[in-house]
Amino acid sequence: MGTAVTGAAPTVDERVRHTSAFRRMMRRPEMGAVAGTIAVFVFFAVVAGGSGFLSMRGTASYLQVAAELGILAVAVSLLMIAGEFDLSIGSIIGASGMLTAMLTVELGLNLWLAILVSLLFALVCGALNGVIILWTGLPSFIVTLATMFILRGTTIGITRAVTGRTQVGGLSKLPGFDGPAALFASKLEIGGAGFAVSIVWWLALALLATWVLMRTRFGNWIFGVGGNPQAARNVGVPVGLVKIVLFMTTAAAAWLVATIQVLNASGADVLRGTGREFYAIIAAVIGGTLLTGGYGSAIGAVFGALIYGMVQQGIVYAGVDADWVQAVLGAMLLIAVLVNRFIRTRAMGAR
Amino acid sequence: MPVPATQTMEGTMNRTAKLVSVLMVAMLAMVAFGTRQASGQGSRADVVIEVVTHGQASDPFWSVVQKGVAQASKDMGVTAEYNAPQTFDMVAMGQLIDAAVAKNPAGLVVSIPDAEALGPHIKAAVDAGIPVISINSGSDVAKELGVLVHVGQTEYEAGFGGGEKMAAAGVTNALCVNQEVGNAGLDARCKGFTDAMTKAGAKVEVLGVDLTDPTGSQQKIAAKLQQSPDVNGILTLGPTGAAPALAALRDGNLIGKIQLATFDLSPDVLEAIKDGDMLFAIDQQQYLQGYLPIVLLTLYHDNLNTIANPILMTGPGFVTKDNAERVIALAQAGTR
Lengths: 351, 336
Fold this sequence. Notes:
The complex is a heterodimer.
Chain A: H1 21-26, H2 31-48, H3 56-81, H4 89-106, H5 111-136, H6 140-163, E1 167-169, H7 178-185, E2 187-190, E3 193-196, H8 198-215, H9 217-227, H10 229-234, H11 239-265, E4 267-269, H12 276-286, H13 298-317, H14 325-349
Antiparallel strand pairs in A: 1-4, 2-3
Helix pairs in contact in A: 2-13, 2-14, 3-8, 3-9, 3-11, 3-12, 3-13, 4-5, 4-6, 4-11, 5-6, 5-11, 7-11, 8-9, 8-13, 12-13, 13-14
Chain B: H1 5-34, E1 48-52, H2 60-76, E2 79-83, H3 90-102, E3 107-111, H4 115-127, E4 132-135, E5 150-152, H5 155-168, E6 173-178, H6 184-199, E7 203-208, H7 214-227, E8 233-236, H8 239-251, E9 259-263, H9 267-274, E10 280-283, H10 286-303, E11 311-313, E12 317-319, H11 324-332
Helix pairs in contact in B: 2-10, 3-4, 5-6, 7-8, 9-11
């Protein structure tokens, strides 16, 4: 797929038609999402600006919602550019969060150590996803669907067998809670509102992912693997390795969200993260990443998550009856995707 | 040179066979681990009571019901099988009831969150001559379906009681936070709460949240409080709604300014009540809803005993600062 060389340096050649900087910018995958974000922001600023949407606390609240989804969506967009899906991340959130909680509350392990063990666990889950897919040649959709159920069931089964309950709480009373809490679940006071540190994680990861995608050889490999795996293999790209690393990345992102939630809520629940995998895919797709792979951006996923956060919180600020929230959310998402596509075809069309 | 097709095929088959065998072993281990041991001995162990509820295994509330079922079957020496659909899915639950009836058990225990969807399945069980006891939700339809007795708390009355208590605490403008939109029982709780509050001259608004997303729920509640600054009371319909509501109040320094109460108990809820951060919890003592039907059905099986009241009330009971400490110890054990 031609779009695989997005990052290539421009060369002066009279045969290449000159395109304006504006048009080139409009061709970036994330442009639709940026336009959608502006549209959604303006909409809620008008409808709900007076009731708190525009306040610092309102901003902090939708950014926190967007951040936890955004962390997932950035990793998922990389994987989707490489042409794969990961449906197991929601279950990995539940499993690794519960693992951290059980290791500390039930077994008395040091919290830092427990968080590290959970990370290792998540990485192993991600690697297993990748290895099974490569081994069997089955679509990742099916394999990760299976691991999604296996992980969720195992989490529920083990938690209930060990504790007889489905929620494990009381982490904030543990010695050594403050250090990890500061890193993963603290609030930064800005203008009288507390901005969650997860927002920093989200933006830092998005920048890192964008740098990898646009400026490194690994980034080129990701586009190559998703665009045409056979061609990529022929030019020496380690297709299997790239995919396994990307599955480990999505699993690690799920672990990060789990850790943030466990420390924020001072406990874990076996149902945490249910359905998050689909929200992450939605955010990546709104961000301009193609379901078929080979095209997309990590920054786009940031805006996709931002749209979700603003819609979810904006509806509440707008005072829409709770019964209608999901319907409005669905309609807004559809509109965002359509705007996204309209802008892309307009920008691409006049080539 | 490209690898011959047959060889790669063989390689894939080999790996597939290995993977399949690993999965089979893991699956067998899980099944063996998950199988409940038949409790008791003698003829009563052959008395099988099927329990089908809408309580997903992961819900802490239903965890306690399940404990009640397990303890009762141990105490009575009978065998009880507990089943629930993976998600809140009435079609799947109907199928589970059909499967339970097909085993021709000595008794059937069901929750009825949706009478329209489950009614025909329960009727079929009654028609097949199986004694049925309904628990938790469905008190209004139990009698016409031919159920022996309903063991539970009537949701509307419990919500009404909660509303009276909250109005007495001086709340004039309240939110009813629903963490499981679509559950008729929860709607009735909200309705009862609203009616009692309205009677006392207070206002109530309903807010739906998602029980699987704590951050989203917390931010939604925080946003609602910012949007409606007059709100001075919140009633959540379960612990999975209470935890994010409590976090939202703590974050916004609103503890004490906004009174928080909830349906049902969890360790976090009890701690908050003990510390004075929450007003009260409406307790329906669901352990009884698991325990009593097993006892009643065993007695019916052995001795044809029945209860005369149409509804055996297990709630509402209230946990307040006065009795929170004692209930905490029991909740840690997973029976409250």
